[in-house]
């Protein structure tokens, strides 16, 4: 099958391990992914999460860019609601100047943490505008195309790289897909949060109506020598969707985190829905066949593979089993 495969890394901290170990393991995985022929390696953004060591993916990206040579490195993604678009543009223009042709800027709308960390990130800053406007401003700073009457039109985001960062919007709705297309950005459907085929089809259709670029699909994909080993490492994955009101939902990793989120925002009337993310797990043949099926069904040109497993040896094995490189090259 003809599609690209890439990696999403949340820098999980294994039981009994330390954040320092988790970050070193992320570098080791990125180097191995480059050797195996993966196209991109992205870092996620999560705040105040004891099990994860990646609150600043742009910092991790810079560190890994300095120690790799070919693979594209980026974020999956920067949670734009916390930051000034101008600063994000400066940061990624600088990264793209340091590593020409290898920098990806993936942006997401989610908070990446509970309200307490969101409030701490917002401390001392004026209220931010709507996400859509933030994204338009970010594109304006990156491309130097802000309208003349924009309040920050006279503040260019320098340095201006010869090869700008490639831009991606992460989402799981037709609205996000349409916004990405309108801006000329690539769209990444987050099937690791919502794997409903009907929703994937709706988002991809909205994107293709306005863009000639191919959408990407992010999904949990983990391979082991046997299906039993994969199930043992992966466990029972669940996503808990917190419904706070009409159109207000947040995805959390546990029912306890969802309840804590509602408490921190002061909402007593809420509903928690347990959902099952899209999970491709088993031996290599099973997972590859599942990716092939998704490629055929939705026309996916590139997969972003998320393996939420902390065991470094198991993650290395999964990378090898799903590697785009020929088997002989892996050996």
UniProtKB/TrEMBL annotation:
Entry-linked Pfam families: Bac_luciferase
UniProt-listed InterPro entries: Bact_Lucif_Oxidored, CmoO-like, Luciferase-like_dom, Luciferase-like_sf
Domain Luciferase-like positions: 14-293
A cellular component annotation (GO) from this entry: cytosol
A single GO molecular function term of this UniProt record: oxidoreductase activity, acting on paired donors, with incorporation or reduction of molecular oxygen
Family membership noted in the UniProt record: To bacterial alkanal monooxygenase alpha and beta chains.
Protein name, entry field: LLM class flavin-dependent oxidoreductase
């Amino acid at each position: 099958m003809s599609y690209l495969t890439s990696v999403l890394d949340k820098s999980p901290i294994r039981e009994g391990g330390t954040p320092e170990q988790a970050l070193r393991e992320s570098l080791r995985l990125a180097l191995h992914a480059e050797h195996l022929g993966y196209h991109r390696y992205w870092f996620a953004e999560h705040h105040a999460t004891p099990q994860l060591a990646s609150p600043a993916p742009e910092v991790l990206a810079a560190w890994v860019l300095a120690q790799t040579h070919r693979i594209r490195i980026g974020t999956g993604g920067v949670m734009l609601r916390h930051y000034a678009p101008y600063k994000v543009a400066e940061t990624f223009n600088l990264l793209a100047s340091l590593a020409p042709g290898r920098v990806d800027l993936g942006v997401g709308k989610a908070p990446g943490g509970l309200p307490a960390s969101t409030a701490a990130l917002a401390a001392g800053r004026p209220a931010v505008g709507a996400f859509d406007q933030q994204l338009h401003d970010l594109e304006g700073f990156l491309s130097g195309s802000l309208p003349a009457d924009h309040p920050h039109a006279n503040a260019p985001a320098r340095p201006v790289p010869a090869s700008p960062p490639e831009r991606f919007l992460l989402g799981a709705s037709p609205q996000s897909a349409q916004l990405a297309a309108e801006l000329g950005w690539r769209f990444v459907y987050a099937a690791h949060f919502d794997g409903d085929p009907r929703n994937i089809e709706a988002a991809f259709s909205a994107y293709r109506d306005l863009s000639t670029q191919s959408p990407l699909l992010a999904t949990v994909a983990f391979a082991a020598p046997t299906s039993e080993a994969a199930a043992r490492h992966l466990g029972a994955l669940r996503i808990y969707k917190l419904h706070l009101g009409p159109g207000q939902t947040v995805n959390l990793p546990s029912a306890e985190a969802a309840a804590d989120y509602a408490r921190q925002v002061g909402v007593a009337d809420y509903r928690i829905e347990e959902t099952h993310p899209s999970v491709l797990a088993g031996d290599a043949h099973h997972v590859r066949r599942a990716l092939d099926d998704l490629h055929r069904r939705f026309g996916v040109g590139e997969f972003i593979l998320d393996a939420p497993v902390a065991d470094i040896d198991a993650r290395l094995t999964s990378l090898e089993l799903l590697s785009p490189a020929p088997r002989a090259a892996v050996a």
